[in-house]
Amino acid sequence: MNICNSLRKLCAWRSGSKQVSIDAVIPLLTVPVLMFIASQTVYLTIIIFLITPIFIYHLHHNFLRFLPRSKFFLMWTITSVIVLMLVFEMCVVPLLEILPEENIFFIACVVSGIFCGHKTKVRADCLIQDDITNEDLELGEKNGELDCVTCRKRPPPRAYHCRTCQTCILDREYHCKWLDCCIGSSNLRWYLGCLLFSAMAFIYGSNLTMTSVCHPFIFIGTILLPDDCSDVYHQLDLALCFVSAAYSLLLGLIILSYLIYHIYLIYIGKTTNERRNCTADIYCRNGPFSCIGQLISCKY
Fold first, then answer.
1. CA distance 236 to 44
2. Would you call 212 helix, strand, or coil by DSSP?
3. Range in 78-82, 160-164, 290-294 with the lowest mean pLDDT
4. What does the DSSP assignment read for 34-51?
């Protein structure tokens, strides 16, 4: 009995024992298994890539959205990055088709994306209360003006309430489920850096992998693009590399679209919340076939 208690104290967290929720464990098992199944044949690859978004949507719509703050999407992000890095370094690099400087640049992009993502989450957790000052709270209580009934506070202009974080966020864009934090004025720059380096890492890593396992051709100068990938499913390791490259390319294009969208919002001087509200106002006033020009130049 004493030995068991000693081992329990030795393996326990510093702040005490912590309970791991089942939604945080699912991605740890799901991502590697899905990638392994998709590596068997090209038909399974297509099926897995089509079913996975439907599976995630169904899981979120029926179960995850009822949890106070699910870690499913954050763990899916972490697991995907780890699995893709392991496949690249353990399966692609040993093929000796990649130059050392190309691998170093890829790792630098990955590390920079992880660092910016970490800073995004840390600043959201640390500065989330700094957006709402005590003076605003006292003033709202004295005048009886509580703009945010949920927070019982008077938020400053351009602050919006987040139901997940249970507070108001200054210049709130949206709650990013994949980083499990709100994006606002306190961490928008770090978030944009995370999007930039992550898009570079995913797309560049996908190109390096594709040109290593497929027959490449010279596009411009020393830039290679994949040409014929029909032989990759003859070996499991090559098929796994190909599937990881396709998954990486898909993630990179999605992240790149988010980056372009945020750059456009910065150009017009609006946040995602303001853009969404403005779009809803135009829709309500003019119907679904309202003028596209009004939608593009939507300003307060």
1. 13
2. helix
3. 290-294
4. HHHHHTS-HHHHHHHHHH
* Token code pair at residue 39: 């590596």
pLDDT tens, position by position, 39-91 = 999 999 999 999 999 999 998 888 887 777 888 999 999 999 999 999 999 99
Show the tokens assigned to 127. Answer: 């500065």
Characterise 225 by phi-psi region: left (phi > 0), alpha (psi -120 to 50), beta (else): beta
Q: Give the whole-angstrom CA distance, residue 140 versus residue 290.
A: 38
The residue type found at 83 is V
Nearest Cα to Cα of residue 74 among 197, 202, 163, 177: 177
- pTM beyond 0.85: the answer is no
Cα dist from 164 to 68, 169, 177, whole Å: 7, 11, 10
**Nearest in space to 142 (alpha carbons), one of 155, 159, 154, 131:** 154
Alpha-carbon distances of 260 from 123, 199, 252, 263, rounded to whole Å: 23, 11, 12, 5
In the numeric block, the tokens 């396992």 are attached to 213
Q: Where are the domains of the chain?
A: 77-268, 270-300
Express each pLDDT in 182-232 by its tens digit: 888 888 899 999 999 999 999 999 999 999 888 877 777 667 677 778 888
Phi and psi angles of residue 68, each rounded to the nearest 5 degrees, phi first: -60, -50
Q: Return the closest-CA partner of residue 237 out of 92, 72, 73, 55.
A: 92
Q: Phi/psi at 40 (nearest 5 deg)?
A: -75, -55
pLDDT the model gives residue 123? 86
Of 36, 127, 49, 92, nearest to 205 (Cα)? 92
112: tokens are: 């920079």
Q: Give the model's pLDDT for residue 279.
A: 55
Q: 113-117, 229-233, 288-292 — which is least confidently predicted? A: 288-292
Label each residue of 62-86 as H, E or C.
HCHHHCCCCCHHHHHHHHHHHHHHH
